[in-house]
């Protein structure tokens, strides 16, 4: 017995306790009442008093409360575990039956009450011998929830979704929110990041721009009421809301009213006035909500981010704070995404008291617990600036759609966040972000991510609170938690082993083999042979292996070292596929071993087993594909001019590819009954393995493509084995004729010029074209002064007489001198008009300049602005909408045989 049944507990709260502390006191009072303890409340004065006989005094308040300060000065209260820091708490039963619950802030007091309530429940009364204190490792800890959908709504773009009940019914579900708030409180998470493109026009109607409102007056009232309720209920549980927005996004009604494009890549007087007005009104009405700012993507952040932030966003927030009359300005979280944040931070230094930063952890996947290279340097720089620096566990494109509970991997990742990246914040995406709150499982009723993925949220938040925990104790903890779910310790241990092993597979595969760690790729749907053997064609993102992977080799490096007989360095592709097969086999064995011990939630255990089987098939698929790719790359590396001499080597690849397709067929059959789709973003941004996340969102949709690839490979190798050459090799393709030009009218920006040899590509330098693809000869292009292009001012207003393609020349050099091709890793809108893949490579040779690749961007008939950002480039003309592009390499030096013809239909090639 605790002895508390013979004592009355007197809870004495400090007078200045906020809503979180008051909620904590309510939790404590409930726990005491349920334990049968008599409870009274007495306000805490300036000095804590010894309790009367038969009483126990619980003193509750922040360290700044006069009574707590007095206890410290009297050395009655001593911090043997260290004084609590932000969100930290300290509990101590002092001599004289005074039990102190204190914290560095209101949330710390809440957590202290929560901890004491837990001890009361465990012991059945007041714990008489307690002295414990904890301060979280990370200052900000919580999930991201997207007010975004799986598909775009034309004419709106990605991210642009007004907040209405028909789009986001869950947003108005207060029971769901209360459940989530309680879950996060139990995990001591203190923030929710709400993501949207431009949410403000769904929450306020600014007097200056009434036309910008995106919802009906009734919906506006409901949205404001809902958001205010969320702020209050989250605040009671120590949770702050952050609202994320992109720049420069504007509402569709506003764009139509003013006849301007939805995409605004640079500030204008109109967009600045609107943004400042609506943001001021929002901050005035909701000053408790943090602001989460992305200055990249649509806005050319490196050119205009500092101006937009310091001249529009900060003044708006400052005006809103003044109008609200609050003493505590809302925190601003600045994303280091698609721009260099340093100039923005330097220009804002000292101006705003609550400026923090955020950057992605492994890009848009989970690949390693040891990020390195420039990614690590970015985090460390941002963490050095003084505010909270938040690490974003973003999208998880490689983990979709499966469960993930590799708690050891997660713990190591949080240790890296704290110790190697020097960061102190966590921003956690759900595993199936774009379709919150539902999971992708085929189950009726649909499963909720909050239920299915509970271990995902709990593990990240547990280690964000305290990363350095004993491994054996953690194994026992998670075995116990899973035993609660599945009804026995044996089943819990088997489930943990399954989750730990499964969770090693996808991170290893994507970091060594993938094209990208971003939204472009759905790893679980596989990769084509071209993507494995010729990744440059698919614009492989080098940060994947330079920052988000251990040191090691890509497939082409591995084969080159094999052919040369040199030693391998670090992790190799064969290492990861062998690891994948080993870990996935371990997962399947573990989940089967635990099946007989399952006593509850058998359906969920079966779904876990299904995930283990699917991941094992994926691992086998990649193992076979990589081994076939090694044979093809070996043939390519030893090619000496006669393709027929390589037939025997290439024949070794065919049965491996055949086996991989058979494995994939089994995977498609399995997942037909378990998952609606593999990726949560059903948009054209998904490119790998096949373009368009809706058309190729399930394994069954991808299987025919792999079957066709196999048939083509088999046919081409058979032709070589007969001593013949496939048409793609035997027949030199005839050069195409000139592109079909359409009228291009320049209104402002550059100067028209004729694209011919001898003409210069810039107005102010004599650097003539010395070689030109015949497709381009005679087109009417647009050129700029080179000085203007280097200064980031090279934009052009133009008109097309009919729908067509604008041909843009990109100089092949990665330095900031030259405009870079947009990419989906940093700009979700990069492919809105196509143009990511070149239609001609090395098509223009210019004196003293890098060669030029040509990209084609779709435009409707009418007037447009092309403002791509900083760096020099040239416009090489406009051509018809139905113009066919070969993608050929014009430079003889670049016509190295990639062997991609192996995967093409030889009959089609012969035509």
Distinct helical segment count:
26
Largest sheet report: 8 strands, parallel, barrel
Oligomer: single chain
Estimate the global geometry from the Cα principal axes. globular
The percent of residues in helical segments reads 25-40%
Low-confidence stretches: none
Q: Which whole number gives the mean pLDDT?
A: 93
Number of strands: 24
Structural class by SSE content: alpha/beta
Radius of gyration: 31 Å
Strand content: 5-15%
User: In order across it, which strands form the biggest sheet?
Assistant: 7-8-9-10-11-12-13-14
Terminal CA distance reads 90 Å
Label this structure with key terms.
911 residues; alpha/beta; 6-stranded mixed sheet; globular
Describe this protein's structure.
By secondary structure, the protein is of the alpha/beta class. It has 26 helices and 24 strands. Helix 1 runs parallel beside helix 3 (106-123), helix 11 (407-420) packs parallel to helix 13 (454-465) and helix 21 (602-637) packs antiparallel against helix 22 (647-672). The longest helix has 36 residues, at 602-637. The protein is globular, with a radius of gyration of 31 Å. The model has no long low-confidence stretch (mean pLDDT 93).
């Amino acid at each position: 017995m605790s002895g508390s049944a013979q004592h009355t507990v007197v809870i004495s709260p400090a007078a200045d306790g906020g809503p979180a502390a008051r909620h904590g006191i309510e939790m404590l009072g409930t726990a005491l009442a349920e334990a049968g303890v008599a409870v009274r409340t007495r306000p805490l004065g300036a000095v804590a008093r010894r309790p009367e006989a038969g009483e126990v005094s619980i003193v509750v308040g922040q360290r700044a409360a006069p009574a707590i300060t007095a206890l410290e000065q009297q050395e009655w209260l001593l911090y043997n575990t260290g004084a609590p820091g932000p969100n930290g708490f300290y509990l101590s039963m002092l001599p004289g039956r005074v039990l102190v619950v204190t914290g560095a802030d209101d949330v710390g007091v809440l957590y202290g009450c929560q901890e004491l309530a837990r001890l009361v429940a465990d012991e059945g009364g007041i714990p008489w011998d307690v002295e414990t204190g904890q301060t979280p490792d990370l200052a900000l800890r919580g999930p991201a929830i997207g007010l975004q959908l799986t598909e775009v709504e034309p004419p709106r773009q990605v991210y642009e979704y007004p907040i209405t009940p028909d789009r986001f019914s869950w947003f108005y579900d207060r029971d769901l929110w209360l459940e989530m708030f309680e879950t996060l409180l139990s995990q001591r998470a203190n923030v929710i990041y709400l993501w949207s493109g431009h949410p403000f026009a769904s929450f306020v109607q600014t007097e200056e721009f009434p036309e910008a409102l995106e919802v009906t007056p009734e919906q506006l009232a409901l949205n404001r009421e809902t958001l205010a309720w969320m702020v209050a209920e989250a605040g009671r549980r120590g949770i702050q809301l952050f609202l994320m927005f992109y720049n420069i996004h504007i509402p569709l009604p506003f764009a139509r009213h003013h006849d301007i494009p939805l995409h605004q890549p640079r500030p204008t007087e109109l967009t600045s006035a609107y943004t400042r007005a609506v943001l001021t009104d929002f901050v005035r009405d909701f000053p408790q909500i943090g602001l989460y700012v992305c200055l990249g993507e649509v806005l050319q952040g490196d050119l205009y981010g500092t101006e937009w932030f310091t001249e529009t966003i900060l003044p708006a927030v400052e005006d809103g704070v003044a109008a609200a009359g609050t003493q505590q300005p809302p925190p601003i979280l600045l994303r280091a995404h698609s721009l260099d944040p340093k100039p923005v931070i330097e220009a804002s230094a000292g101006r705003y008291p609550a400026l923090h930063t955020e950057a992605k952890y492994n890009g848009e996947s989970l690949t390693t617990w040891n990020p390195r290279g420039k990614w690590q340097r970015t985090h460390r720089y941002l963490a050095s600036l003084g505010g909270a620096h938040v690490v974003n566990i973003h999208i998880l494109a490689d983990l979709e759609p499966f469960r993930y509970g590799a708690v050891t991997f997660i713990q190591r990742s949080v240790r890296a966040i704290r110790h190697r990246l020097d960061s102190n914040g966590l921003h956690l995406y759900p595993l199936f972000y774009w379709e919150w709150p539902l999971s992708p499982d085929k189950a009726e009723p649909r499963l909720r991510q909050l239920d299915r993925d509970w271990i995902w949220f709990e593990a990240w938040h547990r280690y964000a609170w305290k990363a350095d925990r004993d491994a054996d104790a953690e194994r026992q903890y998670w075995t116990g938690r899973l035993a609660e779910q599945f009804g026995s310790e044996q089943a819990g241990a088997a489930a943990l082993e399954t989750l730990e092993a499964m969770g090693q597979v996808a991170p290893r595969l994507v970091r060594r083999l993938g094209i990208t760690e971003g939204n472009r790729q759905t790893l679980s749907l596989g990769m084509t042979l071209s993507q494995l053997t010729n990744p440059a064609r698919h614009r492989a993102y080098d940060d994947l292996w330079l920052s988000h992977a251990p040191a090691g080799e890509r497939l082409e490096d591995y084969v080159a070292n094999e052919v040369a007989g040199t030693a391998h360095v670090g992790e190799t592709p064969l290492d990861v596929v062998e690891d994948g097969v080993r870990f996935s086999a371990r997962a399947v064995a573990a989940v089967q071993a635990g099946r007989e011990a399952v006593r509850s939630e058998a359906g969920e255990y079966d779904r876990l087993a299904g995930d283990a089987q699917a991941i094992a098939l994926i691992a086998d698929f990649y193992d076979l594909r990589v081994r076939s790719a090694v044979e093809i790359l070996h043939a390519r590396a030893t090619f000496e001019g006669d393709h027929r001499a390589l037939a025997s080597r290439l024949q070794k690849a065919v049965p491996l590819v055949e086996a991989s397709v058979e494995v994939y067929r089994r995977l498609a059959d399995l997942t037909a009954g378990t998952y609606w789709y593999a990726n949560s973003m059903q948009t054209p941004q998904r490119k790998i393995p096949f373009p368009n996340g809706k058309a190729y969102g399930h394994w069954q949709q991808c299987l025919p493509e792999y079957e066709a690839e196999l048939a083509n490979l088999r046919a081409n190798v058979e032709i070589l084995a007969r001593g013949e050459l496939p048409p793609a090799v035997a027949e030199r393709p005839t050069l195409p004729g000139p592109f079909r030009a359409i009228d291009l009218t320049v209104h402002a920006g550059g100067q028209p010029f004729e694209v011919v040899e001898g003409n210069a590509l810039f107005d102010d330098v004599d650097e003539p074209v010395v070689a030109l693809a015949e497709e381009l000869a005679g087109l009417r292009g647009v050129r700029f002064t080179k000085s203007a292009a280097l200064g980031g001012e090279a934009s052009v207003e133009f008109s097309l007489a009919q729908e067509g393609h604008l041909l843009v020349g990109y100089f092949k050099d990665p330095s900031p001198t030259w405009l870079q091709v947009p990419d989906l890793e940093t700009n979700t809108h990069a492919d809105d008009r196509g143009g990511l893949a070149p239609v001609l490579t090395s098509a223009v040779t210019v004196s003293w300049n890098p060669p030029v690749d040509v990209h084609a961007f779709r435009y409707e008939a009418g007037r447009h602005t092309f403002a791509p950002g900083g760096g020099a480039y040239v416009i090489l003309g406009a051509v018809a909408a139905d113009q066919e592009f070969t993608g050929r390499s014009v430079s003889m030096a670049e016509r190295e045989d990639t062997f991609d013809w192996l995967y093409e239909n030889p009959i089609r090639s012969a035509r």
